[in-house]
TrEMBL record:
Stored PANTHER family: MANNOSYL-OLIGOSACCHARIDE 1,2-ALPHA-MANNOSIDASE IC (PTHR11742:SF28), MANNOSYL-OLIGOSACCHARIDE ALPHA-1,2-MANNOSIDASE-RELATED (PTHR11742)
Alphabetic keyword roster: Calcium, Disulfide bond, Glycosidase, Hydrolase, Membrane, Metal-binding, Signal-anchor, Transmembrane
UniProt-recorded name of the protein: alpha-1,2-Mannosidase
Listed pathway(s): Protein modification; protein glycosylation
Bilayer topology: Single-pass type II membrane protein
Organism of derivation: Oreochromis niloticus
Region of interest (Disordered), ranges: 17-96
Disulfide bridge map: 410-442
GO molecular function: calcium ion binding; mannosyl-oligosaccharide 1,2-alpha-mannosidase activity
Enzyme Commission number, as recorded: 3.2.1.-
Chain sites annotated for binding Ca(2+): 567
Listed Polar residues bias regions: 86-96
Length: 592
């Protein structure tokens, strides 16, 4: 039975992404007098100055789209540039000096993106579970299409659309965020509707004030992965066009971008709630994967240069106890205050370090070094064991520990797991154990609630163990992080408990979040007479359901040998320069 709350209030959604701890990003307050920069960088502030072997081709088996349509020849052309900066970036960051060829890229994958049989598991029970998740996606999508088509999210109780103000004037966040999920699930009619909407209605000439981070992870990330999966040039062109509109945000004295940008005028500014006009670690630190791919596809080195500049500054700056605080001034390049967290405000910065290394085919050694050094500092200062034996990540406020772990921080089980192989060999098992312990703690935060869904934040003080102690932390907004870690831990260990835990989450979502016209977040995970928040977040379609589907699929569906997932679960391919620049691959491709 799906319970629909009879009494509900229209509310603004609570927290969305990593940059915000609560619903701050929904209230884009422009500070009157601080840190505004125009597209040209002149207003407000003066600028100082401006190995493995190539894989054996899998193409003996015909490359097919999920719906069975034969893959077209989708070679892309791009101009060759000879700038010194491109030469620098091309060695490690994918700006191949050759014309980008979609066909060649496909040849350089170890496995077909969708696996041998679209990842269908042999075990009948697992397959049934996977089908259930697919049905949930179709249900969420159909209701979005029926009641909120073209808006950013569905309001499933009031049966209308939500636009909000995170994406400037951009629309259709749920459509762009869903493209790859629909595609991998083989929901081809739905995917084609989504593609048609992108073609005819995704208007990038909007004039609104957008979160750089959110637009990047959802729109740029969504379009890039749709392109890499399907070869449809439309997606590539839109991604690059949108990427260009984000560049003015970097016009600051340090090149650290501001958090908010007007996509029309290029004016950018800092969040009103971020102290002293600072930029947020999880926001400016979560651009690397997408921007490197923008360079890869456009041959324009500027994207990689922008994110490498951020990397360089962060590498150089002094860090308290080796930790990265969450707020940095884009003007002075100094930390603004010493709050450190692996959850909101910090999280995906760490994720993008290890994923940058993996995405570079393990050539980006700076990213690797920064990741493991940061992880050591995190272990030394933040990782704690509760009296009940649960391992958790506390937050750090200038040396004082806050024994709280956010739902957002639960992605770190998966992150530490995927990085276990590439640190010091003697630490491999240690990292796998740590990843498993954190994932276990996050599962406990679910099992200790009445709904079997986890709260926004849980604590380990005053007798609490993995439970929320404040009313304001009790909500669940369909977030993916716990399930994300189950998926990675399943792929890394094949311990069946992770699939069982994922199934518990499916049952809880069905019981408490499914309403007549979609899925909704809930306000209190500790009561089974749930009150719904009337919001089907786009990341539910992009991440939560995708990770569940992958959890119940074979490992060769979006194999981790070929793909890394951006922080919104959009798969981006590992850039295999050794193969992409290999003459034999090139000739073979050209002659076909
Ligand atoms: C998503 O937009 C991304 O996963 C982001 O990194 C964090 N927050 C949401 C989901 O909770």
């Amino acid at each position: 039975m799906h319970r629909v709350a009879t009494l509900f209030r229209e509310i603004q959604p609570v927290t969305v992404g990593s940059g915000s701890e609560n619903d701050v990003r929904e209230h884009l307050k422009r500070p009157k007098d601080q840190g505004m920069t125009s597209a040209k960088g002149e207003a407000g502030i003066k600028l100082k100055s401006q190995s493995r072997k190539p894989p054996v081709s899998y193409e003996a088996t015909e490359v097919r789209l999920a719906g069975g349509k034969a893959q077209e020849d989708l070679n892309l052309s791009r101009s060759k540039t000879e700038s010194a900066s491109e030469k620098v970036t091309s060695s490690n960051h994918g700006a191949n000096s050759d014309t980008f060829s979609y066909k060649k890229f496909r040849r350089c994958l170890f496995k077909p993106p969708l696996g041998r049989d679209n990842g269908r598991p042999v075990d009948p029970q697992t397959n049934e579970r996977r089908e259930k998740v697919r049905e949930m996606m179709k249900f969420a999508w159909d209701n979005y299409k029926r009641y909120a088509w073209g808006k950013n999210e569905l309001r499933p109780l009031t049966r209308n659309g939500h636009i909000g103000n995170m994406f400037g004037g951009l629309r259709g966040a749920s459509i762009v965020d869903s493209l790859d999920t629909l595609y991998i699930m083989g929901l081809m009619d739905e995917y084609n509707d989504a593609k048609e909407w992108v073609k005819t209605s995704l208007d990038l000439n909007s004039n609104g004030e957008a979160s750089l981070f959110e637009v990047n992870i959802r729109y740029v990330g969504g379009l890039l992965s749709a392109y890499y999966l399907t070869g449809e040039e439309l997606f590539k062109n839109k991604a690059v066009e949108l990427g260009e509109k984000l560049l003015p945000a970097f016009n600051t004295p340090t090149g650290i971008p501001r958090g908010v940008i007007n996509l029309g005028s290029g004016t950018s500014w800092s969040w009103g709630w971020a102290s002293a006009g600072s930029s947020i670690l999880a926001e400016f630190g979560t651009l690397h994967l997408e921007f490197v791919h923008l360079t890869e596809l456009s041959s324009n080195p500027v994207y990689t240069e922008k994110v490498m500049n951020i990397r360089k500054l962060l590498n150089k700056i002094e860090k308290p106890h080796g930790l990265y605080p969450n707020f940095l001034s884009p003007v002075s390049g100094n930390w603004v205050q010493h709050h450190v967290s692996i959850g909101g405000l910090g999280d995906s910065f760490y994720e993008y370090l290890i994923k940058s290394y993996l995405m570079s085919d393990k050539t980006d050694d700076d990213a690797k070094k920064m990741y493991y050094t940061a992880l050591e500092a995190i272990e030394a200062n933040l990782v704690q064991k509760s009296p009940g034996g649960l391992t958790y990540m506390a937050e750090w406020r200038g040396g004082i520990l806050d024994h709280k772990m956010g739902h957002l921080a639960c992605f770190s089980g998966g992150m530490i797991g995927i990085g276990a192989d590439d640190g010091a060999p003697e630490k491999r098992q240690h990292y796998l154990d740590l990843a498993a312990e954190i994932t276990h703690t996050c599962h406990e935060s679910y099992t200790r609630s009445a709904t079997k869904l986890g709260p926004e934040a849980f604590r380990f003080d005053s007798g609490a163990e993995a439970t929320a102690t404040r009313l304001s932390d009790r909500y669940y907004i369909l977030r993916p992080e716990v399930i994300e870690s189950y998926m990675y831990m399943w792929r890394l260990t094949h311990d069946p408990k992770y699939r069982e835990w994922g199934w518990e989450a499916v049952e809880a979502l069905e019981q408490h979040c499914r309403v007549e016209s979609g899925f909704s977040g809930i306000r209190d995970v500790y009561t089974t007479s749930v009150s719904h928040d009337n919001m089907q977040q786009s990341f539910f379609l992009s991440e939560t359901l995708k990770y569940l589907y992958l959890l119940f699929s074979d490992d060769d569906l979006l194999s981790l040998e070929d793909w890394v997932f951006n922080t919104e679960a959009h798969p981006l391919p590992i850039i295999r320069n050794s193969c992409l620049q290999d003459d034999a691959t090139q000739e073979k491709t050209a002659s076909e």
